[in-house]
Design a protein that fits this description.
The protein has 276 residues and is mainly beta. 13% of the residues lie in helices and 38% in strands. The protein has four domains: 6-62, Beta Barrel (OB fold (Dihydrolipoamide Acetyltransferase, E2P)); 73-133, Nucleic acid-binding proteins (OB fold (Dihydrolipoamide Acetyltransferase, E2P)), CATH 2.40.50.140; 148-205, OB fold (Dihydrolipoamide Acetyltransferase, E2P) (Beta Barrel); 210-275, Orthogonal Bundle (Arc Repressor Mutant, subunit A), CATH 1.10.10. The protein contains three helices and 18 strands. The strands form four sheets. A five-stranded antiparallel β-sheet has the order 3-2-1-4-5, with no helix packed on it.
Length: 276
């Protein structure tokens, strides 16, 4: 079986004037046009290709790499808007359509949006949706507290930033816990801070609890080395100065330098911290 909207490892079956025909173990065939055929490939070889529908709605494969796969989220740019909807650049010749019915707000050419790519049940075409919440599931959670997760920032709210967790769940990073500049479409590592009784997930951008000490200490130590072994920060520094220099809270900073001090890696002076 060949899965549209994803990578497939297929066997080269035969060579034709228009390209190679590739096949799956179930006997399904698909064309790889000549312009995508790698050099020195032979009949019987296996090749990894992305499969989708071309401009004439025919299944086709390519060696190009799209920026989003089926059932995943991506941050894409609108290259055209017409009477059908918005067309987004996802790295392939045929752009990804987001119908007007799948736009949270009317999309504008030249703007970037977080979208979900899926296979439409009616047309069997790959399309995108900017209504991301309906593709997220917080009923059946696959994460646990303190777990490291992958994040995609989607929207700034009154409380903080909505994020997509591991392409599956929705979470929130509170504004007062963000110590660096973030924007829609940013990807980052995060940590599950709390799972609430209603399965809402609070996310931290820093490790939780005991796990915070070693990574924080390492970050501070690397910053020290970059700055010639000295930082004009200490436990009396203002939270604003620490946030500006290290993108972390003062509480986290104090834990980090405490670890470094106990390991005899730094000296805490009146005007800052110094590598020993």
């Amino acid at each position: 079986m060949i899965e549209l909207g994803n990578y497939n490892n297929l066997e080269v079956l035969r060579d034709t004037s228009v390209g190679l025909f590739l096949g799956s173990e179930t006997g399904t065939e698909i064309l790889l046009p000549n312009k995508y055929v790698p050099k020195n490939i032979e009949i019987g070889d296996k090749i990894k290709v992305f499969c989708y529908l071309d401009h004439e709605e025919r299944p086709i494969s390519t060696t190009l790499s799209p920026t989003v796969l089926r059932n995943e989220f991506g941050f894409l740019k609108v290259v055209e808007v017409n009477k059908i909807g918005a067309f987004l650049d996802w790295g392939l010749e045929k752009h990804l359509l987001v119908p007007f019915s799948e736009q949270r707000d009317k999309m504008k050419e030249g703007q970037w949006y977080v979208v979900h790519c899926y296979l439409d049940d009616i047309s069997f075409r790959l399309v995108g949706s900017n209504k991301t919440d309906k593709f997220l599931d917080n009923e059946n959670l696959s994460v646990r507290e303190r777990q490291e997760v992958d994040l995609l920032f989607t929207r700034l709210t009154d409380l903080g930033w909505d994020v997509i967790i591991n392409n599956v769940h929705k979470g929130l990073v509170y504004s007062n816990e963000i110590y660096k500049r973030v924007a829609v479409g940013d990807c980052a590592k995060g940590y599950v801070k709390k799972i609430r009784s209603d399965n809402k997930i609070d996310i931290s951008l820093q490790p939780i609890g005991e796990n915070i000490l070693e990574p924080t200490a390492s970050l501070i130590y690397e910053k020290l080395k970059v700055n010639g072994g000295f930082l004009a920060l200490h436990d009396k520094s203002s939270p604003e100065d620490i946030k500006r220099e290290l993108q972390m809270s003062k509480k986290t900073f104090k834990k980090g330098i405490g670890t470094l001090y106990k390991e005899r890696k730094i000296e805490i002076k009146e005007d800052g911290i110094q590598v020993l």
